[in-house]
Amino acid sequence: MKHLWLDFESRSLLDIRKCGLDRYAQDTSTEVLMLAWAFDDEEVQLWEPRLGPMPERLKSGLLDPTVQKAAWNYNFERDILKFKLGIFTDLNEWYDPSVLCAYMSLPIGLDRAGEALDIDQKKIHTVGDNRLTKIFSAPSKALKKMIKEGHSPVYFKDWNTHPAEWAAFCEYCKQDVAAERAVHYAAVSLDSPMTEGEKLAFAIDQRMNEEGIYIDQVFVEQAKKLAEEEANQLVAQMKEITGVDNPNSGPQLKAWLKPRGYMYDSLDVEHVEEALKKDLDPQVRQVLELKEKLGGSAYKKLQGIQDRIGPDGRLRDQFVYHGAHTGRWSGRGVQPHNLYKPDKAASKRTDEFVQAIKAGTFKPDTISTMVAVASVMRASFAAAPGCKLVVGDLSQIESRALAALAQCKTMIDAYAQGHDLYKEFMSWLLEKPVDQIDSDERARGKVVILGCGYSMGWKKFMEYALTFGIVLSEHDAKAAVKGFREKYPEIPQLWRELNNAAIVAVKSHRRIYVKGLVFDGADPRWLRIKLPSGRYLHYFKPFLTQTENWRGEMEDQVCYYAFDKKGMQVKRLYGGLITENVIQAISRDILLNGMIEAERAWFKLIMTVHDEIVAEVPLDSLLNLEMLLKCMSACPDWGAGMGFVLAAEGYESPYYRK
Asked: In CATH terms, is domain 3-190 a member of 1.10.3470?
């Protein structure tokens, strides 16, 4: 198939990338400055609309559905074509090399992807590209003298005002196409193409992002107003007590608290709650209580929602395909994956609070306005008029996947018989009947099952439990970790088998088969782990090193290069981490299977958050919760015989909730 490589440069008075791609439809200030283009490996051409109409060959290629359009983060190019040039292209006509990079756990930024793939940086960008973009794509403020002479308050620099820089800008645009092609070929040479399942996953991702989430704008406006009023009052009170310039600043507030007996380095919810259980200076207690009411900055997401709503009241482009190394989705913009954990008391009164906030009648009683708003903020995401949300959540999916992969019969049988695994474990650990396990003990069992499956030691387990608001003594933490490993011995055995497989694969450059997985070290550039679904986890440039184990002996360990915001980092692989990566990846693949099945059943998917699927359904539709849960709990074809016992639960509602 012929490729047509594209890269647009445009300018706009709106921050389009921040507030949603569909803003192109209403933003008349957007102007196309230039388009760099090339067919396959031909020389890159440049079209400047100011100099004349679009070349016929370029136009023919854009209109031809058999020509695959290619661009890095292609949505920008696709929407410019649609909204500004009147050329509609189907999603299936596009290829995005950044998606292949994401699948292979390479950076999705063009510069960093080129660096990771050892491409000569001269082929990636011309010098001063960011400066050139700022000069020509962003508006400039006119000087007072210019305004007096009749200029607009804002204006754009162009080829007349900065001819030399404009010439460099044209070369930069062409260079982007050359860089995208170079990264594409380097990535393809690694010989790890996306599976058909992953192509389906990306297509679903794009449909979700394009459909968007309807926003209850009345709720958002009222909630923001209430939260800001209380935030201003709380900050003023904290400032009066402490004398600190900005009590919202963690370092400033800790500098005031530490000399007065505050014992933690963090001011997160769990640590503040724990501090308030202790004897404190009255002023410190008062400040921490105010801090607790302030609830961080969760309410500020409401402004972010308003900034990004499209002209039809929907929030788009919020999900990132393969945002995590394991293939899980992540968020951007408003970050739907990173919403405030609801207060327990507030979660029991969700409907009451949502209705009161929306009506403007909310009055704080036992719960502060700030905590109430943050706790029910998910209600901003609503069903469009005439519709409802149908939400399904995979139940305990990671521990179910872990039980299947490890072939842990005790766990598998418990799930198959519908037992409460959390209570069952605590019954065994505490040697008391299941029906005598209280809610606090069950909560402890939950953090054990969720936290100990990936070789977590007792110290780390204590920290992990604290994130759930559970404080454990050293004795209890050690007992929980030891008990988990004794009751479910197949799981520690799994850690050892996966660790050994990785070491042998890297050392011998061959494929190792274990537990239905394939550890592929044949290509020294990669350690790849083939999952039951057929896709791979990727570990870049693996190598062996020696490390001291808990017995004081030296042993082999695999390290690899990972990419994060700080750049390329060396990380170590060990049995627990490999298990965690594999289980999270399998859990994601089970979720994807549910999404595929849901679309086949004609559900319109609008979100996936963690292990949830959110669909928007007309009120008169035959589609319902039972049907969605059936789609989600269906075992994938690739999982047949592995022992998966899947379950899902959910709700139907006019709005999203926890």
From this structure: no
